Amino acid sequence: MAVPSVELTGGVKFPMIGFGTWQSAPDVVGTAVRAAIDAGYRHIDCAWNYFNEKEVGQAVKDKITEGKIKREDVFITTKLWCTYHRPEDVKRGFQESLRGLGLDYIDLFLIHGPPAFKPGPKWLATDDSDYDDTDYVDTFKAMESLVDEGVCRAIGLSNFNTQQLERVLQNCRIKPAVNQVELHPYLVQQKLVDYCKSKGVVITAYSPLGSPGRDFAQPGEARVLEDPVVLDIAKNHEKTPAQVLLRYHLDRGIVVIPKSVTPSRIRENLQVLDFSLTADDIKKLNSLDRNNRYVDWSFCKTHKYFPFRD
């Protein structure tokens, strides 16, 4: 069964199930991406600061060489990191990802988050002295030239709240096609989802399973995959909890990018097209909302453009 797509600005087809590569180590991510392509994924989500673009790109090229896919068959998303926000640095940041992936163009390029950090070898802010005041609106405007040049098919945002997204929409020439944010039943973000839909901005859900394998997971934290409501719905549909959580997003019209390095789970995460959740299922899952953000960007909470401040 073919993965459905949504249409982005400019008529670009965006597969609604993608393959995530965050926190997949360089020595395993290539094997995982090859397994994903073999399983039927045609949307790969990357980022400069995942530090595995080279291996992801090589895996894609391997499958092209094998004749499994053509370049135009696979949709590649990557992201501009916070140290490249100054308009004069945007193209350099883009080209680093392009070279790392070994591709001629990127399908979707996102600002990874609104806060800017000072350019240089130190990629993560450790205190306020590492912050930069560059306005993300100026960063986005610089990204528009990448579309003009034909090296990027679409541009968008990640980790932007409604107010920040509104500022971009008020000042951009090319509308952001996507806002990629953390979403799962413990973090429903219905107001943000509704706002994006009202503006024609597609939502992509990262950490759709609650990111249980992330390296900074806390002992004893609540796990959405183990919630009794999720388990009960999974039993009723004869599906796994992960499949229920992925279907939850699809039934809300949201693109989803699960991550795994285990071939059986990679295949399992794609097997969500043969069922749908009921309206009651979705109501029950929405009722689990507890504003539980697993990826909180705590390294820049005092930045003036921090996106998760209430």
TrEMBL record:
From the UniProt record, list the reaction(s) this protein catalyses.
S-nitrosoglutathione + NADPH + H(+) = S-(hydroxysulfenamide)glutathione + NADP(+); a primary alcohol + NADP(+) = an aldehyde + NADPH + H(+); S-nitroso-CoA + NADPH + H(+) = sulfinamide-CoA + NADP(+)
Q: Which residues are recorded as binding substrate?
A: H112
Q: Which SUPFAM superfamilies match?
A: NAD(P)-linked oxidoreductase
Q: Which domain of life is it from?
A: Eukaryota
Where in the numbering of this chain does the NADP-dependent oxidoreductase domain appear?
A: 17-289
Q: Does the keyword Oxidoreductase apply?
A: yes
Active site: residue positions: Y50
- What's in the keyword line of the UniProt record? NADP, Oxidoreductase
Pfam families the record matches: Aldo_ket_red
Question: What are the residue positions of the site described as Lowers pKa of active site Tyr?
Answer: K79
Q: Which GO terms describe its cellular component?
A: cytosol
The GO molecular function terms of this record are: aldose reductase (NADPH) activity
- Could you tell me the EC number(s) of this protein? 1.1.1.2
The family database entries (InterPro entries) matched by this protein are listed as:
AKR (IPR020471), Aldo/ket_reductase_CS (IPR018170), NAD(P)_OxRdtase_dom_sf (IPR036812), NADP_OxRdtase_dom (IPR023210)
Q: Record's family?
A: Belongs to the aldo/keto reductase family.
State what protein this is by name: alcohol dehydrogenase (NADP(+))
Q: Which organism is it from?
A: Branchiostoma floridae
